Amino acid sequence: MGFDYDLFIIGAGPGGIAAARRAAEYGARVAISERDQVGGTCVVHGCIPEKLMVYAASFSHVFEDADEYGWGKVHRRVSWDRFMAAKDRAIEHLSQLHIQHLQEAGVELIYGNTKFLDASTLDIEGRKVTADKILIAVGGEAIKPDVPGIEYAITSRQMFELKRQPEHIAIIGSDQIAMKFAGSMNGLISKVILVVPEDCGLPGRDEDLRTAVQESMTKNGIQIFCNTKVKKIERVRDSLRLSLSGDNQDTITVDTVLCVIGRVPNLSGLDLEKAGVAVNRGAIAVDEYSYTNKANIYAVGDCTNRPHWTPVAIASGRAFADTVFGKQPRTVSFECIPSAVSSQPEAATVGLTEAEAREKFGEAVCCYSQRFQPLFDSIAEPEQKTLIKLVVDRNTDRVLGAHMVGEYAAEIIQCLGLAIRTGATKKDFDATIGIHPSAAEEFFTLR
Predict the structure, then answer these.
(1) How far apart are CA 383 and CA 376, in angstroms?
(2) Cα separations in angstroms, 325 against 25, 299, 319
(3) How are beta strands 168-172 and 256-259 bridged, if at all?
(4) How does residue 71 score in pLDDT terms, banded at 50, 70 and 90?
(5) pLDDT tens readout for residues 321-347
């Protein structure tokens, strides 16, 4: 039978856009549908606006130290309206760039909710289309805990739609997004309470990194309640009252509650059962080539059981197109993926944590770490010390992991990721001459 398209992609986020452009380069007739703004969660509601907010918040810390550097006292109050307007302009610009790139590639963009009618037929707001191959790239969505009054809490998406800056905000969560928002809102001079269900924020990260980030956040004025959960949220006039349980059983009153406890694949409304697509633990089950259980249907990104990172979705989308349309079968390795926490201070990591390394290599693991005052603080009032750490297998001398808390951590760890992925040893690090003065050079002087 003839199909309307060689490839139809559901979802114009990073993974879908990457796959669409690459498949079109191979001559495929491609269409992509989107029910929201083009760019996906990362561009519109996630990584990009979150990082812009981090940038906005960072000025308050610079202003604090301006006097010591000879600039005198600087005004320290942000205009929420001006920042939000600037953020919207930046996101709209990025979204339009993605649309332009799709048009230049010859990809048809269709707006609307998309659902399956069968394994080769889709419905987009009443329009039926057929495709030889279908790629699902619908991303994920935020979830909330099942507690009374949770409807009063907002998610990270709604955070960027607020008309007024919260004066006193409670953030429920402990992952990198929760820590990022806590640092940003504190930097924007909101009063912040962070409610963490674990003994420390950033569960799953290296223990030294977790401790360093949390200590610095506390020093910066963020109130952190560990081993604590929200039992109930109540509306009291213009405020919200949270009843807590666990190590802290107080009642706190704020004007805004932000819930950041995780995300799940955004599969509602797709009618996957009509196409016979298998779902495992709430995610679309795929193999190493992004194939589902249906021969003509594929999936990439946060709707699958793979790591939920934008670069993973992009890499998977391109690998899918190379495999299916370029006839160059290839997979994506999900090992040694660098990741960052845009907290204040910034943190980043690549490879194994100390705990993971010891579980795998036992007593052969050796760690090298150092905490030092960054050069900037030699004039400014010290705020926190930089932490760097290498995890090494003593038997092979191979560096298994690198972790950092401090300025430019993401940029530094990103580059170290290449070295660690290609098997660099501690001896290689020791033989490398660093740039002076810089924080990165300290990784090459660890003893």
Answers:
(1) 10
(2) 9, 15, 10
(3) parallel
(4) confident
(5) 999 999 999 999 998 999 999 888 899
Residues 410/346, Cβ–Cβ less than 8 Å: yes
Nearest Cα to Cα of residue 296 among 314, 275, 312, 315 = 275
Can you tell me the distance from the alpha carbon of 326 to that of 320, in angstroms, rounded to the nearest whole number? 9
Q: Are 5 and 82 a contacting pair, CB within 8 Å?
A: no
207-219 helix and 176-187 helix, angle to the nearest 10 degrees:
20
Q: Are strands 191-195 and 223-225 parallel, antiparallel or unpaired?
A: parallel
pLDDT, tens digit, 9 for 90 and up, residues 137-163: 999 999 999 999 999 999 999 999 999
Catalytic residues: 436
Q: Could you give the 3-state DSSP secondary structure of residue 142?
A: strand
Structure tokens, 424? 């660099």
pLDDT in tens, 236-258: 999 999 999 999 998 999 999 99
CB 313 within 8 A of CB 15: yes
Asked if residues 179 and 186 have their Cβ atoms less than 8 Å apart, the reply is: no
Q: Cα–Cα distance between 177 and 179 in angstroms, integer?
A: 5
Question: Of the ranges 37-46, 314-323, 371-380, which is most confident?
Answer: 314-323
